[in-house]
């Protein structure tokens, strides 16, 4: 759990402020015992054509510089659980 806390601190201090400039954020999906970190961009950054570049140039560089146990950062595509829940709620209200 300490590893996840260290990663979240880096995301909070170094990554999220940059993503927030573009109305985006990042979700830590998991980090396995082999140092593979899986993340998902959310907000405006989720659909950005530069998402994979952002993952490598910003996320991977910052996290790996501060948390050397992370050997690889994988950007997951798809829709976050929060966004999916919000869409379902909107549809339920529209179609009662």
Give the class from helix and strand content and strand pairing: alpha+beta
Q: Roughly what is the average pLDDT, rounded to an integer?
A: 90
Largest β-sheet summary? 3 strands, mixed
Distance between the termini: 42 Å
State the order of secondary-structure elements, H for helix, E for strand. Answer: HEEHEH
Radius of gyration: 15 Å
Strand content range: 15-25%
Percentage of residues in helical conformation:
40-55%
Give a verbal description of the structure.
The chain is α+β, with helices and mostly antiparallel strands and 96 residues long. The protein is built from 3 helices and 3 strands. The protein has helices spanning 2-20, 51-66, 81-94; strands at residues 24-31, 36-43, 72-75. Strands 1-2-3 form a 3-stranded mixed β-sheet, with helices on one face. The radius of gyration is 15 Å and the shape is elongated. The termini are far apart. The model has no long low-confidence stretch (mean pLDDT 90).
Tell me the layout of helices and strands:
Blueprint: H1 2-20, E1 24-31, E2 36-43, H2 51-66, E3 72-75, H3 81-94
Parallel strand pairs: 2-3
Antiparallel strand pairs: 1-2
Helix pairs in contact: 1-2
């Amino acid at each position: 759990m300490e590893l996840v806390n260290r990663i979240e601190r880096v995301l909070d201090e170094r990554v999220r402020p940059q993503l927030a400039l573009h109305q985006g954020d990042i979700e830590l999906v998991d980090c396995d015992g082999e140092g593979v970190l899986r993340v998902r961009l959310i907000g405006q950054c989720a659909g950005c054509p530069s998402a994979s570049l952002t993952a490598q140039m910003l996320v991977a560089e910052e996290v790996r510089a501060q948390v050397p146990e992370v050997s690889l950062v994988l950007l997951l595509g798809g829709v976050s659980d929060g966004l999916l829940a919000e869409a379902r709620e909107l549809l339920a209200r529209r179609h009662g």
